[in-house]
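Human:
Take a look at this sequence-structure pair and walk me through the tokens.
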Amino acid sequence: MGNFWGSRLAIAIGVGATTAVLGSAIAYAVAAPAASPHTYYACARGTQIRAHSITLDATPQCPKSETVVSWSQGGAGVTGATGVAGPTGATGANGVAGPTGPSGSAGVDGLDGATGPGGPTGATGLSGATGANGATGANGQDGATGPAGATGATGATGPSGGPTGPTGPTGAKGATGATGQNGVSGYQLVTKNGTAPAAGFVTDFVACPTNKLPVGGAAFGTGSAPMNIRVVQSAFVGSTFGVVIENLDPSAADGYTAQAVCVTPN
């Protein structure tokens, strides 16, 4: 036994190599062996033997997470494979059910109490007599009709109007008035388009054709928001219509149309 522990610090257990670093703790856990061969047991976690679990000729109580390993006194041995579990025995037959006990007898119903007699119905009282109708009063007499008043006398007819006067003489012809100013002709609407910058102003002129003069004009927006275009000032400058336009949109330029009404003076 002394040679076995002194010369080996690792013990091969099972098919894999299970290493147990034993040292002096093994000598403390294992008593001196007798002359006959002995078997040593221990608890192993994976490949490590728990030194204080080693027992001699007795299987230790190992936790579920550990495995029981063993080896002979002469050296490390291989733990035999676990035998195949035997078949489960057949389930025994069910025992015969005992007889059902008799049902208890039902109790006797109690007697119903007698119904008491009904009281007598009271007599109906007499109806009172109907009172007599009162007499109808006499109708009053109609009043007499008063006499008609006398008709007033007709007034006298007034005199007729005077005779028609003679026709007056024809008046003298008046003097010829002064000659009025010449009118206009050749009405024409002249249009000009442009773009006003965002939050800015633009001055534009619409020129009338040769021999025509402006008599009116306007300007308006042509974008998605036409009211953003505002006329600040306008004037007739020779044969042109001048206009100052403001774009009220603070972020986008907007289109406009300026127009002049042109005519030919006579």
Q: What stands out?
A: The beta strands are 39-45, 48-56, 67-72, 184-196, 201-207, 213-221, 229-237, 240-247, 254-265. Confidence is low (pLDDT under 50) at residues 1-31, 76-81.
